[in-house]
Design goal:
With 379 residues, the chain is α/β, with parallel strands linked by helices. The chain has 2 domains: 3-242, 3-Layer(aba) Sandwich (Aspartate Aminotransferase, domain 2); 245-377, Aspartate Aminotransferase, domain 1 (Alpha-Beta Complex), CATH 3.90.1150.10. It has 14 helices and 12 strands. Helix 12 crosses helix 14 (365-377).
Length: 379
């Protein structure tokens, strides 16, 4: 079935006999047993709920995985994922990560006995140099947040499989519409469903999608034990959002390409990080492993004054955290998404007073460009 059709119709399982087009919201914490030792397949919503199951089956089909698990947020999904590992285990991770992921690794996972090395995963040699006897996984964002570095998923997968490591890929920025890491050899895909999968900036969600039943069983046990499952109503909101995923991703990318090209011509813009520009170091790899470039742009301006002027004077674009919704959002990574990173690490990565991150929405591209232009020129 075509991806676009899967977005609309999702799981082929039906739980309703009324003919309702919209998936019902089964707002129930518990379910009646038909008899002793018998079950309808649903017992308690922490373990499974029909609305959430429909969503999980939909996302598993979109990512071409064997199972998907829906969590109450992207960070809840990542926290549960870390429970696959034991004290002393070592994980190699991209050195340019969403700040919340890095915060979890540095402050919670390390406390629990896990060890990490952060490297440029677009360079396989850096991964190889970080291997220890205790290494169990490689964790990759591609493109990375916020500097948009691109990692060759298939190459890293071959490397991991040769050594028995898990390969985990955060696919939030591109979604399965543009990139399907499991098809490239990844074992687990992570999503902040709050972003493009939802698409409306109105709920939090997270997902893990897995390539084999063994991982599914291990994560399902963690899932029911730790309990950070997605509620029925929030599951319904994500189901609704996914119905337009393919349309939104295309339009947002079209807008992003126009805006990235415009930014490249602005005197006060010193660098544009967008993987859809042929000048981007990861452009060729993006063309090879993905069917699109997404709608996330980071760009560097000439001064802190220009950055603050933009943030405080945009009108259509909103100065807010998050990304992937219908509305365009501009973010100041050093004070928002990456505020908890030590300053020396931020500066090494270029996350400083002049770096801005733009999540391009569904508005008219010309209106967004005009908004950036007027904000940049305000005294």
């Amino acid at each position: 079935m075509n991806f676009d059709t899967l977005c609309i119709h999702g799981s082929d399982i039906r739980y309703d006999t009324t003919g309702a087009i919209s998936v019902p919201i089964f707002q129930s914490a518990t379910f009646v047993h038909p008899g002793v030792g018998r079950s309808t397949g649903f017992d308690y919503s922490r373990v499974q709920n029909p609305t959430r199951e429909h969503l999980e089956r939909t996302l598993a089909r979109l990512e071409n995985g064997v199972d998907a698990l829906a969590f109450s947020s992207g960070m809840a999904a990542l926290t549960a994922l870390m429970e696959l590992f034991s004290p002393g285990d070592h994980i190699i991770a991209s050195d340019d990560l969403y700040g919340g992921s890095r915060r979890l690794f540095d402050n919670i996972s390390k406390k629990n006995g896990l060890e990490f090395d952060f490297v440029n995963t677009s360079n396989i040699a850096e991964i190889e140099e970080s291997i220890r006897a205790e290494t169990k996984a490689v964790f990759v964002e591609t493109p990375t947040n916020p500097m948009m570095q691109v990692t060759d998923i298939a190459e890293v997968s071959r490397f991991c499989k040769g050594l028995g490591f898990l390969l985990i890929v955060d696919n939030t920025f591109l979604t399965p519409y543009f990139q399907r890491p499991l098809e490239l050899g990844a074992d687990i895909v992570l999503h902040s469903g709050t972003k493009y999968l939802c698409g409306h900036n109105d709920t939090l969600a997270g997902f893990l999608v897995v390539s084999d039943l063994g991982l599914s069983e291990r994560l399902r046990f963690i899932y029911k034990t730790t309990g950070a499952c997605l509620s029925p109503f929030d599951s319904w909101l994500i189901i609704r959002g996914i119905k337009t995923l393919h349309i939104r991703m295309q339009r947002q990318q079209e807008n992003a390409i126009k805006i990235a090209r415009w930014l490249c011509g602005q005197e006060k813009v010193k660098a544009v990080h967008y993987v859809g520009l042929p000048s981007h170091p990861g452009y060729k790899m993006s063309v090879k492993q993905a069917s699109g470039f997404g709608a996330m742009i980071s760009f560097e301006v000439d001064s802190e004054r220009t950055a603050l002027r933009l943030l405080e004077n945009v009108k259509i674009i909103k100065y807010a955290e998050s990304l992937g919704g219908a509305e365009s959002l501009i973010t100041y990574p050093m004070l928002q998404t990456h505020a908890d990173l030590p300053e020396e690490i931020r500066r090494i990565k270029g996350i400083n007073e002049t770096l801005l991150r733009l999540s391009v929405g569904l508005e008219c591209a010309e209106d967004l460009i005009a908004d950036l232009e007027q904000a940049m020129e305000v005294d």
